[in-house]
Specification:
318 residues, alpha/beta, Hypothetical protein af1432, 2 domains, 5-stranded parallel beta sheet, 14 helices, 57% helix, 8% strand
Length: 318
């Protein structure tokens, strides 16, 4: 398997030896002599694997690894820490920095090649998943583009859902799910004909049943990707109601995943305050919040989340 490798080491001889060996086996190799140069090369070259020396002056390997893993653009790039350190606490520090593997000096040639090829296989798999996700996100945005009234709807939902999720203390993985769910929640509408999706006025009972299927279809479209496992409950359940009158599964109360409840609060507000085929006169902010308050009293929406959203909206307006 061909791939691009970045070798980072302050020892020129070590860089040269590693680069020569890896090139001999067909890899594209670039090198960097210190931490700052490595970070620059990562952003320019986008290597498939990074071999990173730990003991460098200034910015050491632990710190460089940590910065790479904190950057959303590079966090999935495999990093191998190359070190003479053998103490357990050093290995733990490397793991905490986000390292994917370790190589001990002096480096064994066979081990180097085996670990490099293994991580290249992993990177190829991750890239394939990212491409699949990119297709789904493009599909979701194309569906949004079908409806001239919902411009930027998905981006608004993603942003506001994350804000509300942060207010109630959701963990990072659920905030990430909300961000992605904001874009993907209505992807199942790809199966809804334009005559129904863009129909002005109320739907017939039969049309409404077709529309309701978009939550199930959306879950089915996204379910093959395990990376979206936390997004699936948002897609399927963002139209459930606390009193069990929602769809598709008529869940009640706490049966509805909290991320779905968060997104539905934001979704309802956005639907009320923007022009839609069925709503040519969007509500003002206060009118929309008043409608939602009445629906909370009817037992439809989570009252605690609504109160948090209300405070968030008031804070945003002041």
């Amino acid at each position: 398997m061909r791939g691009s490798i970045l070798v980072v080491d302050d020892d020129e001889d070590q860089r040269r030896v590693l680069a020569l060996l890896l090139r001999r086996f067909g890899f594209k190799v670039t090198t960097a002599a210190d931490g700052p140069a490595a970070l620059e090369m990562v952003s320019i070259e986008e290597p498939d694997v990074i071999l990173l020396d730990v003991n460098m002056p200034g910015l050491n390997g632990f710190e460089v690894c940590q910065r790479i893993k904190r950057n959303p653009e590079t966090r999935l790039t495999p990093v191998v820490l190359v070190t003479t350190l053998t103490a357990t606490e050093d290995r733990v520090r490397g793991i905490e920095a986000g390292a994917d593997d370790f190589l001990s000096k002096p480096i064994d040639r066979n081990e180097l090649l085996a670990r490099t090829r293994s991580l290249l296989n992993l990177k190829a798999y991750v890239d394939e998943l990212e491409r699949a996700e990119a297709v789904l996100f493009s599909l979701a945005r194309s569906i949004e583009a079908r409806d001239p009234y919902t411009g930027e709807h998905c981006e608004r939902l993603a942003k506001q859902s994350v804000r509300l999720g942060k207010r109630i203390g959701l963990p990072e993985e659920q905030l990430n799910a909300l961000s992605r769910g904001g874009v993907l929640h209505d992807i199942g509408k790809v199966a809804v004909p334009d005559a129904i999706l863009l129909k002005p006025g109320p739907l017939t009972a039969e049309e409404n049943e077709i529309m309701k299927q978009h939550t199930v279809v959306g879950e089915r479209i996204c379910s093959p990707l395990k990376t979206l496992r936390l997004v699936l409950p948002i897609i399927r359940h963002h139209h459930e109601k606390l009193d069990g009158s929602g769809y598709p599964d008529r869940l009640r109360g706490e049966e509805i995943p909290v991320t779905a409840r968060v997104l539905q609060i934001v979704d309802i507000y956005d639907a009320l305050t923007t022009r839609r085929p069925y709503n040519n006169q969007p509500s003002s902010d206060q009118e929309a919040l008043g409608v939602m308050e009445q629906e909370v009293k009817q037992g439809w929406w989570d009252p605690g989340l609504f109160n948090e959203f209300l405070e968030m909206a008031e804070k945003h307006c002041t």
